[in-house]
Amino acid sequence: MSDVKKTRIFLADDHAILREGLRYILETIDEYKVVGESGDGYNALNKIKELIPDIAVVDISMPRMSGIELAEQLRDQVPNVKILILSRHDDEEYVNKLLQIGVKGYVLKDHAGENLLWAIRSVLRGEVYLSPSISQKLIDSYIQTGSSSDSQTNEISPSILSPREREIIVYIANGMSNKEISSLLFISDKTVKAHRANIMQKLRLHKAAELVQYALKFGMIKPD
Hints:
With 224 residues, the protein is of the alpha/beta class. The protein contains 11 helices and 6 strands. 55% of the residues lie in helices and 13% in strands. It has a 6-stranded parallel beta sheet with strand order 2-1-3-4-5-6, sandwiched between helices. Strand 1 (7-12), helix 1 and strand 2 (32-38) form a beta-alpha-beta unit. Helix 2 (41-51) packs parallel to helix 3 and helix 3 (67-77) packs parallel to helix 4. The longest helix has 18 residues, at 132-149. The two termini are 30 Å apart.
């Protein structure tokens, strides 16, 4: 129906053929509309700031500004635009960095056909979506490194957290910013930051990516 508000999507990838294919796939879905696209990160930033789409599908490897730099700029300048990474890279360093920035989804290009639409729906619901192979890598890495570096951390139960802290850890692990959480829970940014600090201290965690892995390990969020 023409009067139904469509989800506005922006595509940032330096491969024109891939963008064309993505546009075709997305626009077969009635509720989606591709409002713009770009082949380089710098131009994408300016266009996204102008268009303010609901979600930006971003590649990591782009000229003039990488997808990681673009994600950082978007978080600072247009935080309401959700970011979904579509990349060939499955390196944990990339994934951890982007999760820390606040990226909502990470899909491997090899699996784009089967996972992209699921990822977009998840991200629009405020959830984090990771390609299944990426989720498994993070879980395996956490088990391997966690057991050798700090075995006590692996055994700390979520029961140590207050009900509010358990609620907030789920929101953080799902990629929500302090501002988004404060708005959702009707509390101040300062209160969210205090809860976040307490959570990290109690669980002996230091990075947002570690918190995501903890939430996955204890079934507080779903891998997909």
